[in-house]
Design brief:
heterodimer, A: 472 residues, alpha/beta, 5-stranded parallel sheet, 32% helix, B: 199 residues, Aconitase, domain 4, 2 domains, 7 strands, globular, binds iron/sulfur cluster
Chain lengths: 472, 199
């Protein structure tokens, strides 16, 4: 029997439907639930109040990352409120028997970094976390999306979620990235084209030769920011690159089980002839390094571009919103962003804190110095990445250049842990959100790739990395 | 759920959850006390005093239960602290042309109605509100209708299941747990395919 061709999104969805009743949302089974300290305490309290328990502690995994300091691990957590929150997750994990990579665990790190690193995230799984960047795990061909605290409680108690199907949205990226252009530039370019609400109600599937050519780490960068395009999730079908990355990792199947798993995973890619609800194509050959100028991730331009002019917009609300953004950023329309002074450079976050990101930044900093007017922080995504980077001497390159080399965590991506901008300061940041105050009240963020960030740190102004690479 | 209220106007697109409740207030382990921090960075000046130019600090906002905002309200982070802060401040509904998916789901779980209206109705509401700061709208969840002061009444979409939960006060987790046999049967079928993270 020939069944209807399906996308990978539909395949993963269909294989997780426990029950579907007319008019009611699906009961969608969840394979893997990541829990962190910020969005879970109220969920655990809810369980206690109702006398409920965690149904499958073995499918749940907890870590602390958001409010933890990135200074030396030997120091106590000074912020008492943060310390309480961190401690609370430890207690909750203990009480409910959930595996936990606590603050002092050698594998502690950002939840979306350690899941894949430990082989916890696998193709064809459903993955949730009380965190919108759960989309990151989609790089493995998993259906991964962020949920709120009520839903965290729901998954803890039942291992299913009540969900309606999303629309499918193909993002086809063909061609070859030029030197100086990174995976981050693909996703920033997409969001600048469709806007931050462009993918609302949808799940992206990233396809095309430029996506196939990406490493797993680069794929995670792309999927990570699916939510910044408004999508619930973004995924990439697994292939040899995926299997090679996963093989031998701690939590992946071994031996004959591995072979069986790979055979299953090979059924996942979208069938020939499957239809998407929406689609867009991007030509990788034409992409330049991207940078944001405004207060949402959709307000991006290529590094050689000009800041747009609100006067050119016809819709009043859109015009007012852009005017408001430029006022907050204290930028003039019609000007280039390249050459704009920078106070802080942040390399880190679940978007760009993996080994290849650190290598990219280090390759620019090697033999150069961070401009004396700039504070540069390099924050690895996990303790494991930190060790790997140190084993290849990247830490020495950063320190010799004058950058700060930190412990793992979310750090200045969300500025909950004391790593933050002062009011009015400008940063070039490899994180994913440039919302007002995201990196500290009054702080102003330009989002870019690790290469662009490192180049800007060297020059002390927003810089086209290609000028340092000698390709422009 | 049926009410009539004055309207707070926030004519900005893409109001993200970092504005609704900045991240530094998420270190709490409780749900309460977030109303005071709603829109903190717009609402208070550097010295902590209320910013007189911000709409929530103006007399006309006192007691208003409806927030009228620009497109794509609630984008960004999945923090449920956003609807907690909005409801604790006193809002019962937000009107926009669209909402971010996670925010919408979170709101419905906290009795905060995300009301989607067409661009035309949205523009009309903005105009009417600009002309009359005391404008009142009425909202009826049962009939899914928003009624304007001139008598025009528009229907707004609400997920039928969420509506039933709101109207009847259904405990969603309890609803799922009643279907436990189906979940267990599903798991039994998938043994081997099931991921077990504890080796
Ligand atoms: S690094 Fe930033 S975006 Fe990623 S999980 Fe941490 S706070 Fe969220």
């Amino acid at each position: 029997m020939q069944s209807k061709p399906r996308t990978i999104i539909e395949k993963v969805w269909d294989s997780h439907v426990v029950a579907e009743q007319e008019g009611a949302p699906c009961l969608l089974y969840i394979d893997f639930h990541l829990v962190h300290e910020v969005t879970s305490p109220q969920a655990f309290s809810g369980l206690r109040e109702m006398g409920r328990t965690v149904r499958r502690a073995e499918s749940t995994f907890a870590t602390v990352d958001h409010s933890t300091p990135t200074t030396a691990k030997s120091l106590p957590i000074v912020d008492q409120i943060a310390a309480t929150q961190v401690e609370q997750l430890g207690k909750n994990a203990d009480e409910f028997g959930i595996p936990y990579f606590g603050f002092h665990n050698e594998n502690n790190g950002i939840c979306h970094v350690i899941g894949p690193e430990q082989g916890l995230t696998q193709p064809g799984m459903t993955v949730v976390c009380g965190d919108s960047h759960t989309a990151t795990h989609g790089a493995f061909g998993a259906l991964a999306f962020g949920i709120g605290t009520s839903e965290v409680e729901m998954v803890l108690a039942t291992q299913v979620l009540l969900q309606r199907r999303s629309k499918t949205y193909q993002v086809q990226v063909d061609g070859t990235l030029k030197p100086g252009v990174a995976a981050k530039d693909i996703i920033l370019a997409l969001i600048s084209r469709i806007g931050i609400g462009g993918g609302t109600g949808c799940i992206f599937e990233f396809t095309g030769s430029a996506i196939r050519a990406l490493s797993m780490e680069e794929r995670m960068t792309v999927c990570n920011m699916a939510i910044e395009g408004g999508a619930r999730a973004g995924l990439i079908a697994p292939d040899e690159t995926t299997y090679q990355f996963l093989k031998g990792r701690r939590f992946v199947p071994k031996g004959a089980d591995w072979d069986a798993a790979v055979a299953r995973w090979k059924q996942l890619p979208t069938d020939e002839g499957a239809v998407y609800d929406h689609s867009i194509t991007i030509n990788a050959d034409e992409l330049e390094p991207m940078i944001t100028f405004g207060t949402n991730p959709g307000q991006g331009i290529s590094i050689s571009g000009l800041i747009p002019d609100p006067a050119a917009m016809t819709d009043k609300l859109e015009r007012d919103s852009l005017t408001k953004a430029l006022k907050y950023m204290d930028l003039q329309p019609g000007q280039p962003l390249a050459g704009h002074p920078v106070n802080v450079v942040f390399v880190g976050s679940c978007t760009n804190s993996r080994l290849s990101d650190l290598r990219a930044a280090a390759s620019i900093l090697k033999g150069r110095k961070v401009n004396p007017g700039v504070r540069m922080l390099v924050v690895p995504g996990s303790q494991e990445i930190k060790r790997q980077a140190q084993a290849e001497g990247l830490d020495e390159i950063f320190k010799a250049a004058g950058a700060e080399w930190r412990e793992a965590g979310c750090s200045m991506c969300i500025a909950m842990n004391g790593d933050q901008l002062a009011p009015g300061q400008y940063s070039v940041s490899t994180s994913n959100r440039n919302f007002e105050g995201r990196q500290g009240k009054g702080g102003r963020t330009f989002l870019a790739s690790p290469m662009t960030a490192a180049a800007s740190a060297v020059n002390g102004v927003v810089t086209d990395v290609r000028t340092l690479l000698g390709v422009k | 759920m049926k009410f009539e209220s004055r309207v707070v106007l926030m004519p900005t697109d893409n109001i993200d959850t970092d504005q609704i409740i900045p991240a530094r207030f998420l270190k709490t382990i409780s749900k309460v006390g977030l109303g005071d921090q709603l829109f903190n960075d717009w609402r208070y000046l550097a010295d902590g005093s209320p910013n007189p130019e911000f709409v929530l600090n103006q007399v006309e906002s006192k007691g208003a239960e409806i927030l009228l905002a620009g497109d794509n309200f609630g984008c960004g982070s999945s923090r449920e602290h956003a609807p907690w802060a909005l409801t604790q401040f006193g809002f019962k509904a937000v009107i926009s042309t669209s909402f971010a998916d996670i925010f919408k789901a979170n709101s419905l779980k906290n009795s905060l109605l995300p009301i989607v209206v067409s661009r035309d109705v949205h523009a009309k509401l903005f105009k009417m509100r600009a002309a009359d700061s005391g404008m009142k709208l009425s909202v009826d969840l049962q009939s899914q209708r928003l009624t304007l002061p001139d008598g025009e009444s528009v229907e707004f979409p609400v997920d039928s299941f969420s509506k039933a939960c709101l109207v009847d006060g259904v405990d969603e987790i309890g609803y799922i747990l009643k279907q436990l046999p189906a979940i267990e049967a599903f798991e039994a079928k998938r043994i081997g395919g099931l991921n077990t993270l504890v080796a």
